Amino acid sequence: MNPQLQKAYLTKPQTRIQIKDWVSYFLGFNLHDHVICKEHNSQLDYIESGFLNLHSSCVFIASRNAGKSYGAAVLCLLDCHFKPGINVAVAAFQRSQSDYIYEYVCEFLTNLAKRINCDVIDIAKIDKDNIFFNNGSRISLFSGAKSQANIKGCHPNILIIDEADLFSSAQFDGIANALEAGGKFQRRLDILSTNYTVAGEGVVLKQIERYDEFNKNKMEGVLPCKVFRVCLLDILEKCSANLLCFNEQTKKPCPLWGYCKGKAKEGQGFYKITSAMETMRDSSRQVFESQMLLLRPSSESAYFGDFDLIKNVSDPDLELNPNFYTFISFDFGGGKCPNFALVMQKDKKTGIYYVIDEFSIMGNLDLLIQRIKFKYPNSTEFDCFCDPKGNAGDGVKGNITNVESLRKHGYHPRWQKFGRDSSAQEVARLISPADGIPRLKVNKRCQILQDEIFSAECKLDQRHKPTAFLADKGKDDALDNLRYIVSWTIKPNYSPKQRGCQARFF
Fold first, then answer.
1. Domain edges within the chain
2. pTM for the whole thing?
3. Which of 6, 201, 330, 399 reaches 20 to 30 Å from 374, CA-CA?
4. pLDDT-derived band at 394, boundaries 50, 70, 90
5. Which CATH entry fits the domain spanning 3-230: 3.40.50.2300, 2.60.120.10, 3.40.50.300, 3.90.1150.10?
6. Which residues make beta-bridge pairs with 327?
7. pLDDT 10s digits, 455-473
8. What strand order describes the sheet that includes 188-193?
9. How far apart are CA 172 and CA 165, in angstroms?
């Protein structure tokens, strides 16, 4: 190896550009470095963050064929080559999943050996479960029961868990806790997922919540947790001029227009536009939106499976319309549950409901109300509903109920106990009526409500057929408020309560 090539081979990349150039030259692989969707990421974003120690833990969610396993393989090789003695473990529920990363690493080692004119064995020794680098680094592969039983004795510096949602929460925690506690290397946990899901025990969704909470409260100097997302749109090739966004002759848009909105005309990816159309054709809408576009968590038992981010979500956000009925609803928290409020409107003529805003806070109901009044000074004039339990004095400080707190601030709440399943059916009918015209629109900023709608599940009978709305799982404060408002106001004889009149309580 000539001195110049040897220097480049041994010089650790310090920037994302240097990483991309090194991988391209020595591994023969061009890293994806362009995204179409706002707040999404590329392969290079994930590799840069991991290799340069910019995160301590991450979730890397990618659509199918987005290069997730390739990215993990590149990062494994970079870590092992430039951090001698490091111990990397790859765990998957089935060996066939971790084998993708294993095979890609072997492929890259072959390319690397050719580039520096040597044999692979001069760089690393390979067996069916391990890749031993000659500098003391190691990649170990675990799968299924083996990963649950034996990885704890491995104590890797870096742990990659592929398709984490297939594990139960207990299995996942057991694997994640195997990471090395000390040592000279920065420990790192990377969780890979083709699609986060509410099926099973929702390991990835739970981990994202943990990371969000950790980042809010982490101490200075502690590395953050990150969530990387790459969807089908991000990896699309540049759309050619002969593929029209709108065909004037047929008066029909491109099949992908509802999602793409012409963004693919600036694409720089590798996924063929025609292949994307075929994938859309061959998939159900729910599967396509969840596994390819990452627009929603997926679940075979989703109660509101027809909730559509194109038809049911308003983007850009809508503001209050003075000609519509206006409502506010409160769901009260305690312990680990937040106090929550939802602001909605209803068009008197069309019957369409609009979710305008959401508010959430742990603990102090008075502070929640202050925030609402700061944004909506006349909110006490909205027709107000609340959780039927809000009038109970048990466990309330000073025996002042939540309803009395609302009255103190000028609200006149009404409440009534509605059946969970019957009220959920009312919401489902608004989301996707038989006539095909959606009658529920949720502002884009109301992310908590959207997440709860996607996460809502139904009970399955012995034949796995959906039956009733699933019982309270502790994450439905926004959805409960939606049910209260719809159940009260969907009645044909509904009329807003007049300000200053005697409040009606049930």
1. 3-230, 233-292, 313-489
2. 0.68
3. 399
4. very low
5. 3.40.50.300
6. 344, 383
7. 787 765 555 455 556 545 5
8. 124-126, 130-133, 138-143, 87-92, 158-162, 188-193, 57-62, 225-230
9. 9
